[in-house]
Amino acid sequence: MSFRASVLTLYPEMFPGPLGLSLSGRALERGDWTLETVQIRAFGEGRHRSVDDTPSGGGAGMVLRADVLAAAIDHASSPDDPRPRLLMSPRGRPLDQRRVRQLAEGPGAVIVCGRFEGVDERVIEARGLQEVSIGDYILSGGEIAATVLLDAVIRLLPGVMGNAESGVTESFEAGLLEHPHYTRPAEWEGRGIPPVLTSGDHGAVERWRRAEAERITAERRPDLLASGRS
Ligand code: SAH
To answer: pTM for this structure?
Structure first.
């Protein structure tokens, strides 16, 4: 059974975008995952298919209407749809590799892309949207955030990555950042490769990689070590 992604957006032309190329593109062609886009505007009000309105209480910008968004969600996902309903949002729980892996193990996701100032709070409650952030900065819309989330999930789907092993040795999977990589030429601009890597001693290579991963994590992301997941 393939992973089903439904993306609700005012810009369906942004999909599959980068997801149509390379690893995720080939996986899409093979049917390892499917993509449906839903144009929120199709559920807009009146002749102009209006989707937004001014914020209650005043202030700048516009807010996506609850009734319009709910109609789009109900079109994409019936009440017995087992897929989680996500709203890309800077207020959400920050996306991490653990969440990505959970999503990849599931049947898919219904992903709402916000625009303007955001969406009416009532639709978040009424449709059980889980807010997901991709970092502490503000994008102009949820589409790129949804693309980031889907890219991270798709590469973990069964059969998508050529070398199944590379999925588990990467940064974060062991609660550590990854060790440095080298390849040929053996010398470049006067810089060599750490001799242990060409020693043929696999045990020594493993120990070196682990030590380097720990050193780099301690230097750059001590918070990962403190979280005790390694
Ligand atoms: N006024 C909002 C930001 C709205 S940005 C606030 O201050 O919280 C418009 C849309 O872009 C959001 O509705 C969301 O869907 C998307 N977006 C912006 N930044 C994001 C982030 N860091 N992670 C996920 N989605 C984001």
So the answer is: 0.95
